[in-house]
Structures are given as C-alpha cells and as structure tokens.
Design brief:
Elements: E1 2-6, H1 14-25, E2 32-36, H2 42-56, H3 62-75, H4 80-100, H5 105-129, E3 134-137, H6 159-172, E4 176-180, E5 183-185, E6 191-193, H7 199-209, E7 214-219, E8 240-242, H8 243-251, H9 259-268, E9 272-276, E10 285-288, E11 300-315, H10 325-335, E12 343-345, E13 349-355, H11 361-368, E14 372-386, H12 391-404, E15 411-414, E16 420-426, H13 430-442
Helix pairs in contact: 2-4, 2-5, 3-5, 4-5, 6-7, 7-9, 12-13
Bound molecules: aspartic acid (ASP) and magnesium ion.
Aspartic acid binds near residues 38, 43, 115, 181 and 199.
Length: about 450
C-alpha cells in the first residue's frame, strides 16, 4: 500500500484532476489511498467569504460555486445533487455568520472543511467514471479524531489504531479511498482542522499508521533543490535527504514538508517522496531514515541562505567561570518574546543571531546591566545541510572557499543534529558565497 497526496494546485480544476487520474492509474498495483486538499485556493476563498459575511453581512460564494460546478460539468459527473447539498449547507452557514456577525475559531474550521469535502467528492466521482473503484471519505469516517484545538488541532493517539482499522480493509477490498486532508473531528463530533497546509500531515499519518510502503506528496515543484534557483541557476533536485536534513531545510523555507508533517513517518521510518505533478518525469526527492540514505555520495545535500539577520555580540568578563550567565541572557530574550536562531559561545562572550524584525531596544537595556552588547545588522546566515559523518571535510572545503572569494566568516555554528553547518557573513556577500559553495560542492 502507498499513500498519494495531491495539494490544491494539483487538483485546481477539471484538467488537473484528469492529470491526477493519469498519475494514479500508473500506480494502481501499489494499492494507493489518496489524500486531497481543497481545489486550488478554495481554502483562502472560504475564509474571504467568511470575512465578507462578517463585515458586510453578505453571502458571496459565486467564485467557489463556479469552480466546483464547472469541474463537475466539464468532467460530466452525475453528482450535481450531492455537491448542491454541500454548497447549500455552506450558504446556510455563511448566512448564519452574516446574521450574528460573529465567527469563532470553531465555526471557521467547520467553514473551511467544505473545501476538502467538495474536492474529494468530485475527484472520486471522476476516478469512478473512468473505471476505478474510487470512494470519497471524510477523514472522520476513517479514524481521524483530534483534540478540540480548533485551527490547529492535534490528532489523538487513538487515531494510530483507528485509521488502519478503517483503511486497511478498504485497501484489501480493492477500494481506492479518496480522503479529505486537513480535517478531523473532536470527541464531541465537532469538525476541526490540523492547521494550514495540514493535508500533508493527514497523508503522512495514514501512511505511518497503516505501515504503508511510502507516501508520495505531489506538489508543484521538482522536490527539494540543492539551492534557491533564483540565486543559483544550476540548482537541481536533491535525490534524497534524511528527516533531520529536511527539518533543517524547512527553516529556510525550502519547499518541503512542514516538520510537523514529517513526525508520523519519522516514528515508523516510512519514506516520503516529494514529487512534481506538473513534471512527472522529475525523480523528486526522497525523505527517509538516515540508514537508507547511502546512495547519496555527495557530502552536501543543499546550500541555503537567509538574509536580513542581526548578529548580537554579548561580552562580559563576569561570565568567566560563572554559572547562570547564559540563563540570564536567554531569559531576557524570552521575556521580550525574541526568538534566537544561531548561538556560539566562548568563555567570555556569546554571539547569537536574530531576525531583524525584532525590536531590541528594551532587551538591550536589560542586557547592558550584565554585559556589553554590540548589535550588527545587515548580516546573512549561509547554511550547508550535509552528511553528519563528513562534517570536517565540509568545514574545511567551505572555509577554503570563503577565504578564496575573500569573504570573512563572522560566526560559525554547527547544529546539535550536526547536519547543519552555518556561517554568518555580510548580507551583501551572501549571494556570492552561496554561488561559490554550490559551484564547489555540486558543479565540479
Ligand atoms: N486546504 C488547506 C490549506 O490550504 C490544507 C492543505 O492544503 O494542506 O491550507
Ligand atoms: Mg491549499
């Protein structure tokens, strides 16, 4: 069994749904279960409709209606009635919001659930119409029980048993289940959502709990790239990364799964394959446990950068041989809700990086009471995500490159997971550094 997840852009309209059917058709012998997002930007449009109901007291869903009804018509599906019932329920809900001019987080979850519920019914009907034994399911019919944290609910432990209990018999019976991503119900039977982009988590949860062979996440990019293609023209897809490497990459906004979505598969070691539904031929990127990532002979997986970073140097002779100094420093940042990214320390100083979006005025006043503080803006973090076992080689090569192009490294840190080696350089040098590192590690 495998799980195939298609995001909103992969099921955006009738022609994209036909394309999904083509992809599914070639893998039927692997016994897939499908997880779908809402069509296109439907989730956003539902939220906009809610705002309109709330602020203007109007029910306006013509865009949503048109998108779904056009798809049914184009695909010649006999489900106008079923979809009509859902759309009517949606309109009644919006009328309610328009009337009472109130929108709770709980109601919002009920509202956005229509996107995925419409989507699976249309796609399942199409797959059925071309001869597949497809059946649409709302996730709560198949064991998705969450807590009541509306807007970002967490699945309950029971789901680990319930989901396979429901899904495996379907798969054995040769049913092709087409399941809503993103949504669940709490113990009181109230609809919840798993957070924006939550369909990935629905898919990985099914794959892990059913011990599937793999989960394929179909997106609109060729997988994880070796660098940002806007900076490095020769950036290319990475064949495979470990879960840890993927988590490090997510921090830089790489097109991977949210770390939360990887958790179920990390538990069971289920491989995740990120594929491009707009470019089926591309091999995509495999995210898998460290042990099986051996095919990848290059020491480095990807090079990323993050600009607009602040470097804060905190120096105090009081730190020498003292305890509690670092705790004091970090508690000051915590009190001011400032999240620290990289840290490097010596006996008498600590350097750390922050996003420039933080206002440091107040925190600096407090820090100044215990140390001298220097804030440098206009910095960038350049990170090399690579093979844990070859970190010395990576460090040596990277230092040599920086020296060669005349870039001074102002701070260096190797994450505890050791898959991430990060340098601080001037913002103006970031692009050049990434290019030079990519050239050395990938293009020579
Ligand atoms: N449709 C939801 C969203 O747009 C969930 C998802 O696509 O994963 O956030
Ligand atoms: Mg979406």
């Amino acid at each position: 069994m495998i799980v195939m997840k298609f995001g909103g852009s992969s099921v955006a309209d009738a022609s994209r749904i036909r394309h999904v059917a083509e992809i599914v058709k070639t893998q039927l012998e692997k016994k897939p279960a499908l997880v779908l997002s809402a069509m296109g930007d439907t989730t956003d449009h539902l939220l906009e409709a809610a705002e309109t109901a709330l602020k203007e007291g109007k029910v306006e869903i013509s865009h949503i209606e048109k998108l779904h009804l056009t798809a049914i018509k184009t695909l010649k599906l006999p489900i106008q009635k079923e979809i009509g019932v859902l759309l009517d329920e949606l309109k009644r809900l919006l009328s309610g919001i328009a009337l009472i001019r109130e929108l709770t987080v709980r109601t919002k979850d009920y509202l956005v659930s229509f996107g995925e519920r419409l989507s699976v019914r249309i796609s399942a009907a199409y797959l059925k119409s071309i001869g597949m034994n497809a059946r649409a399911f709302d996730a709560w019919e198949l064991g998705f029980i969450s807590n009541s944290g509306y807007g970002h609910a967490e699945l309950l432990k029971e789901s680990w048993d319930l989901i396979p209990q429901k899904i495996l018999p379907l798969i054995k019976g040769n049913v092709l289940p087409v399941i809503t991503g993103f949504i669940a119900k709490d113990e009181n039977n109230i609809i919840t959502t798993l957070g924006r982009g939550g369909s990935d988590l629905s898919a990985t949860m099914i794959a892990a709990s059913c011990r599937a062979d793999e989960v394929q996440v179909w997106k609109d990019v060729d997988g994880i790239l070796t660098a940002d293609p806007r900076i490095v023209k020769k950036a290319r897809p990475v064949q495979s990364v470990t879960y840890d490497e993927a988590a490090e990459l997510a921090y830089f906004g790489a097109q991977v799964l949210h770390p939360r979505a990887m958790q179920p598969c990390m538990k069971t070691g289920t491989p995740v394959l990120v594929k491009n539904s707009y470019n089926i031929e591309a091999p995509g990127t495999r995210i898998e446990p460290a042990s099986s990532g051996g095919k990848n002979r290059l020491p480095v997986r990807a090079i990323t950068s993050r600009q607009n970073v602040m470097l804060v140097d905190i120096v105090s002779t009081r730190m020498l041989g003292q305890y509690g100094f670092l705790a004091e420093v970090f508690s000051i940042f915590a009190r001011h809700n400032i999240s620290v990214d990289m840290v490097a320390t010596s006996e008498v100083s600590v350097s750390l990086t922050l996003d420039t979006s933080h206002d440091l005025t107040e925190a600096k006043k407090e820090l100044n009471k215990i140390a001298s503080v220097e804030i440098k803006t206009g910095k960038a973090i350049v990170s090399i995500i690579g093979n844990v076992k070859r970190s010395s080689e990576i460090l040596a090569r990277a230092s040599k490159i920086c020296q060669y192009i005349g870039v001074t490294v102002q701070m260096i840190s190797q994450g505890a997971s050791k898959v991430n080696i990060s340098f601080i350089v001037n913002d103006t040098e970031a692009v050049e550094t990434v290019k030079a590192l990519h050239l050395d590690f990938f293009e020579s």
